[in-house]
Amino acid sequence: MMRLSPMIPLAGLVATLLWAAPPVFARTTASAAIGIVAAENVYGDLAQRLGGQHVRVTSILSNPDQDPHLFEVSPSIARALSGADIVVANGIGYDPWMQGLLAASASPDRSVLVVAALAGRRDGDNPHLWYDPAVIPVYARALSAELARRDPADAAFYAGRLRDTLSAIAPVAQRAAQMRARYAGVPVTATEPVFGEMARAIGLAMRNERFQRAVMNDTEPAASDVAAMETDLRRHRVRLLITNSQASDSAAQRLAEVAARAGVPTVGVTETEPSGRDYTAWMLGELDAVAAALDTKAPAL
């Protein structure tokens, strides 16, 4: 789970978005690839797909077996960031350490894309933006435009890559729409709001959001919120419990046990793109798991 800390105002970071990007520079050799550092590997993977051989990409959060909030900045990451032409951050409190890294290695030639700003999100919104099928195309178009601006000689290449990328990720939104037609209004709950944006896209009725926020922010859930969660599970008021496979929290573990005893299906989701799977395969795999769980007949009370 990503523990959210009070966010330093994004104004300084957003001011360096591509709209205020540095002048175009010429790449004179094939080895002068555009350096991209992405805070999260989902954005890095898409950056590689969009830039192909013209980019070199470093993703900071890339281990799907590790709780992202345990991340610690290393000298190698700072060095990679200092040499980056383009930096991609999620924003709205998910990766606040990026601000310190950027401030420590200021560069007039660097562009910073904040996905939350591109998508019009604000502090307090759900930070797991990649679970919103509408956000990823916005990011892809913005990054593709920045690559073409920096390397106009290969603009046609980037345009083709963008078309291919948008086509490759389209099944995620299509699958969400299909599930919405079938499951809209179905009550579910979660230990954290990791899947929240996708649940909204599907039209699921998400319950116990105060509990989820407390766990995400590493605060103790209110006793009333814990009781409400347990009641929902024991009385089958929800059809599914969604958990964060990358995090271990005592309150969340207790609820998973309550769900198991009550016969309520549990589906684990991740914050980090799994190794060997691209964005589309990752999202479709989780959507299939959710659909299978929702189709499971609930036991009688």
Give the helix/strand layout:
Elements: H1 11-14, E1 34-40, H2 41-51, E2 55-61, H3 75-82, E3 86-89, H4 97-104, E4 111-114, H5 115-118, H6 135-150, H7 155-183, E5 187-190, H8 196-202, E6 205-207, H9 209-216, H10 223-234, E7 241-244, H11 250-262, E8 266-269, H12 279-294
Parallel strand pairs: 1-2, 1-3, 3-4, 5-6, 5-7, 7-8
Largest sheet, in brief, is: 4 strands, parallel
Question: Count of helical segments?
Answer: 12
CATH class of the largest domain: Alpha Beta
Which regions contain 5 or more consecutive residues with pLDDT less than 50?
2-31
Structural class: alpha/beta
Shape: globular
CATH topology of the largest domain: Rossmann fold
Percent of residues in helices: 40-55%
Mean pLDDT across all amino acids: 88
How many strand units? Answer: 8
Physical arrangement of strands within the biggest beta sheet: 2-1-3-4
Q: What share of residues are in beta strands?
A: 5-15%
The number of domains = 2
Evaluate the radius of gyration. Answer: 20 Å
Order of helices and strands: HEHEHEHEHHHEHEHHEHEH
| CATH homologous superfamily label of the largest domain | Nitrogenase molybdenum iron protein domain
Tell me the distance between the termini: 32 Å
CATH architecture of the largest domain: 3-Layer(aba) Sandwich
The quaternary state of the protein chains shown equals: single chain
Question: Could you explain the architecture of this structure?
Answer:
With 301 residues, this protein is of the alpha/beta class. The chain is 45% helix and 12% strand. The chain has two domains: 11-170, Nitrogenase molybdenum iron protein domain (Rossmann fold, 3-Layer(aba) Sandwich); 174-294, Rossmann fold (3-Layer(aba) Sandwich), CATH 3.40.50. A four-stranded parallel beta sheet has the order 2-1-3-4, sandwiched between helices. A four-stranded parallel beta sheet has the order 6-5-7-8, sandwiched between helices. The two termini are 32 Å apart. Mean pLDDT is 88; it is low at 2-31.
